[in-house]
Automatic annotation (TrEMBL):
<dbReference type="GO" id="GO:0042744">
    <property type="term" value="P:hydrogen peroxide catabolic process"/>
</dbReference>
<keyword id="KW-0732">Signal</keyword>
<keyword id="KW-0575">Peroxidase</keyword>
<dbReference type="Pfam" id="PF00141">
    <property type="entry name" value="peroxidase"/>
</dbReference>
<dbReference type="GO" id="GO:0020037">
    <property type="term" value="F:heme binding"/>
</dbReference>
<dbReference type="GO" id="GO:0000302">
    <property type="term" value="P:response to reactive oxygen species"/>
</dbReference>
<keyword id="KW-0479">Metal-binding</keyword>
<dbReference type="InterPro" id="IPR010255">
    <property type="entry name" value="Haem_peroxidase_sf"/>
</dbReference>
<dbReference type="InterPro" id="IPR002016">
    <property type="entry name" value="Haem_peroxidase"/>
</dbReference>
<dbReference type="GO" id="GO:0046872">
    <property type="term" value="F:metal ion binding"/>
</dbReference>
<protein>
    <recommendedName>
        <fullName>Peroxidase</fullName>
        <ecNumber>1.11.1.-</ecNumber>
    </recommendedName>
</protein>
<dbReference type="InterPro" id="IPR044831">
    <property type="entry name" value="Ccp1-like"/>
</dbReference>
<keyword id="KW-0349">Heme</keyword>
<comment type="similarity">
    <text>Belongs to the peroxidase family. Cytochrome c peroxidase subfamily.</text>
</comment>
<dbReference type="InterPro" id="IPR002207">
    <property type="entry name" value="Peroxidase_I"/>
</dbReference>
<dbReference type="GO" id="GO:0034599">
    <property type="term" value="P:cellular response to oxidative stress"/>
</dbReference>
<keyword id="KW-0408">Iron</keyword>
Length: 506
């Protein structure tokens, strides 16, 4: 895709900046594969909860009528209260997912991403990830398979979800390479274990329960498995035993013989699982990393100076010594350049990919350049070790028609504030507005537009820009700035917290 594209830019970052510099918010919940929100030695892991939650959310899908699917309906208390969703793993997961949710990333995309991150970062294969899932507004019809149901009901449940019997065997094995069954929600399957390293009494599906591997199959085939849904004391709830054995063990044998086949099969089925969405939802293409990606591009008007901060991410390198320059074009035929400096490394997909970050510097001051407002800036490109990176000649477009002015201030600290927006003279800005980022009662991020009235008398901030101002009385939410220019809506990627503004009286 072509940068900038606010939704794709953000999905791409969330998906590919997983560790290190600019790591996505969700990664804070996955410092290691055995980490668990409620503490160590519980026998549980966030990674396992995330994968199970994604499956249970999807498992309501009805491929005949197109209802249900991965739409984060599992976040509703009514779904979590169902017997088919026993345990607190769903609530945990949706709390973690919440940190990644934004105007561009739904709860459902966040949940899909959580599952992808858990699998990829804990030994599993790379999963093609798409965005664009839409959050359900109400619980879906029940339909998650339960261990005490018979094989025919499981085959029927997976068929309703869109999976064949072989795919059912495979997907269950792919999921049950993580985690296990806890005593508390399933006392009829697992006894109290009295193990200080497993305080929530989890009987694990395989011996490597925080990592993806084919041990779930090798241990099953070799007869050494301790899987509580295969060799549990209660045969009625031995659903993995019935499912795995339902084709005479052909599928499980193939997985036991080939870790590679297991991984590639799981990559395919996990991708289908997270892409199973209610009909009418249109997912994006598979998100692929931009080779050169501007990041944190922020314009701010500071009196007579247009301040520009920017970073760039160079994909697939750990080179901290590249020669990187940012080049830019302005409105009056001029150009500029700045030598960027290395600012950090990141990685994703379990360390499979790395990226190096470089940022603009002004003298010794990191992170912003001082530009002439009259010249402004129209586009950037980058010179990386002598190679021009300009999106095949398009450049990386920058919208300098509007930006925050540093004259913005707090009228009454922590109560009210004034936003001053610098609008470029001569630009066809039919509307300028604030975008208040809030959360509705259904935990969806919504953007409330607050129009900024055009000034009755132009208020010049400098020779090229005028101020449009509006007061806000809700200081506890972030704001972006939006404008409609030549009929196209633009938003700042920067979010502003008014309690950080200086006082208007000083
Ligand atoms: C007939 C189908 C299935 C049944 C009856 C079933 C049953 C169960 C049960 C009873 C648990 C224990 C939950 C707990 O104690 O917290 C569990 C855990 C889990 N299931 Fe399944 N499952 C099925 C299919 C799947 C599928 C298709 C996936 C994913 C692709 C999956 C992923 C998981 C994971 C990751 C856990 C571990 C959760 C944790 O340790 O916190 N399951 N499953």
């Amino acid at each position: 895709y072509i940068w900038p594209s606010p939704q794709l830019d953000e999905l791409e970052s969330a998906r590919f900046d997983q560790k290190g510099s600019n790591a996505n918010a969700l990664s804070g919940f996955l410092p290691s594969c055995d980490s668990f929100v409620f503490g160590a030695n519980t026998g549980r892991s966030n990674a396992a909860d995330w994968i199970r939650t994604a499956y249970h959310d999807m498992a309501t899908h009805n491929s005949t009528d197109g209802t249900g699917g991965l739409d984060a309906s599992i976040r509703f208390a009514e779904e979590q209260a169902r017997a088919e969703n026993a345990g607190d793993g769903f609530a945990n997961t949706m709390t973690a997912v919440g940190v990644q949710v934004s105007r561009y990333i739904s709860n459902a995309d966040g949940l899909a991403l959580a599952a992808v991150m858990a699998i990829e970062n804990c030994g599993g294969p790379e999963i093609p990830f798409r965005g664009g899932r839409i959050d359900a507004t109400e619980p879906n019809a029940p339909g998650v398979p339960e261990p005490e149901q018979d094989l025919d009901s499981h085959i029927a449940a997976f068929a309703r979800q869109g999976f064949t019997q072989t795919e059912m065997i495979s997907l269950v094995a792919c999921g049950h390479t993580f985690g296990g069954v806890q005593h508390d929600p399933f006392p009829d399957i697992v006894n109290v274990l009295n193990d200080t390293t497993d305080t929530e009494d989890v009987a694990h599906f395989d011996s490597t329960f925080v990592t993806f591997d084919n041990n779930v199959a090798t241990e099953y085939i070799s007869g050494t498995t301790q899987n509580p849904l295969v060799v549990g004391f209660n045969d009625t709830t031995n659903s993995d035993k019935r499912i795995f054995g339902s084709d005479g063990n052909i599928t499980m044998l193939s997985f036991s013989n080939s870790p590679a086949l297991f991984a590639s099969t799981c990559a395919d089925l996990f991708a289908r699982m997270i892409d199973t969405v209610p009909s009418g939802v249109v997912l994006t293409d598979v998100i692929t990393p931009l080779p050169v990606k501007p990041s944190d591009v922020v314009l701010t008007m500071n009196g007579d100076v247009l301040e520009l901060s920017a970073s760039v991410r160079l994909w697939n390198t750990t080179d901290t010594t590249s020669s990187v320059s940012m080049l830019w074009k302005d409105h009056i035929g001029g150009t500029g350049n700045n030598t960027m400096r290395f600012s950090g490394l990141s990685s994703s997909t379990g360390g499979k990919y790395s990226a190096a970050w470089y940022s603009v510097f002004s003298g010794t001051i990191a992170n912003f350049l001082s530009l002439d407002p009259t010249a402004g800036i129209t586009s950037m490109s980058f010179l990386v070790d002598g190679q021009l990176e300009d999106q095949n000649g398009l450049g990386f477009a920058i919208q300098d028609g509007f930006m925050l002015s540093k004259t913005s201030c707090q009228i009454e600290p922590f109560v009210s504030a004034r936003f001053d927006v610098a609008v470029r003279n001569g630009v066809n800005a039919t509307r300028v507005y604030l975008e208040q980022i809030t959360t509705d009662t259904l935990q969806r991020v919504v953007v409330v537009e607050i129009d900024i009235p055009p000034p009755s008398q132009p208020v010049a901030i400098n020779s090229a820009y005028s101020l449009w101002s509006v007061n806000v009385t809700n200081p506890n939410v972030p704001y972006a700035i939006g404008a409609e220019i030549d009929g196209i809506k633009y938003s700042t990627t920067a979010l502003y917290i008014v309690t950080g503004f200086p006082s208007c009286s000083t």
